[in-house]
Amino acid sequence: MTDASTATSESGDSAARRTPSDLPPWPVAVLAAVGVVLFALPVVGLAARTPWTGLWTHLSSRFVVDAAVLSVVSSIAAAAVAVLVGVPLAWVLARVSFPGRSVVRALVTLPMVLPPVVGGAALLFALGRRGVVGGPLHDATGLLLPYSIWGVILANAFVATPLVILTVEGALRNLDRRYENAAASLGASRLRVLWRVTLPMIGPALGVAVVVAWARALGEFGATVTFAGSLGGRTQTLPLAVFVALESNRDAAVAISLVLVALSLGLLIALRDRWWPSR
């Protein structure tokens, strides 16, 4: 009897807390439902087309395994490069005032809005065998970035680094600097303050930046195919394998796509509280 009355009381309290503003107008509700359907339909279509009985056979083929290994290695390396370059850039943009800062910010975040194929072409013209930097570099050292795993890593890092910069810069701007000032007043050097105070305090945002950069690198297609090509076992990552398999083995393409969608969706769900804190 007590449990029933408690449940009734809680239900009444919940109803009392609900205000008319919590209920969307019907046009908003309808458009929101249309939006959900718009994003859900491709996932449903992919799941419906998936060859479930032969899924493991397709995923365990040499073609897919080689692409998966290359994707994992190159995306982890690209995320490391993105963090190594992006965190210092974010710190400078958040803490240092200098002429042209807005131009620098626009430049380092340009890959976010630049068509990936254009980004890959720009990398090729700059770092290719006959590129502005790539030509002299190849003549001096013999190093050729395009059509190699180094090219894959560079292309992936190029598109992933802006995500690290924006995430870390936002965290630095919202950081309470009193702790850093206190550490500095006790004699800590600027580098020690950064390593022992600043980075631990923005640890959650930094973790999100690493994961998002890795996921972006894992799913990159346009810049990779333009700058590094699609050579099986050398530069052919999972997204490129999907593109190739669509012409020869559609079931394998669907199987790979399903894995990438499931991985991306899982990451977004796991990080939901980092981006949209619950009340």
Determine the structural class based on helices, strands and strand pairing: mainly alpha
Tally of contiguous helical segments:
15
Instruction: Indicate the mean pLDDT.
Output: 86
Bin the strand percentage. Answer: under 5%
Distance between the termini: 32 Å
Helix-strand sequence: HHHHHHHHHHHHHHH
The rough form would be described as globular
Radius of gyration, in angstroms, nearest whole number:
24 Å
Please outline the major beta sheet.
none
Strand runs, count: 0
Helix content: over 70%
Poorly predicted spans: none
In short:
The chain is built from 15 helices and no strands. The chain is mainly alpha-helical and 279 residues long.
Can you describe what's shown?
By secondary structure, this protein is mainly alpha-helical. Helix content is 75%, strand content 0%. The model has no long low-confidence stretch (mean pLDDT 86).
SSE topology sketch:
Layout lengths: L1 H16 L8 H24 L5 H5 L2 H34 L5 H8 L7 H12 L6 H8 L7 H25 L4 H8 L4 H12 L1 H16 L3 H6 L10 H11 L1 H21 L1 H4 L4
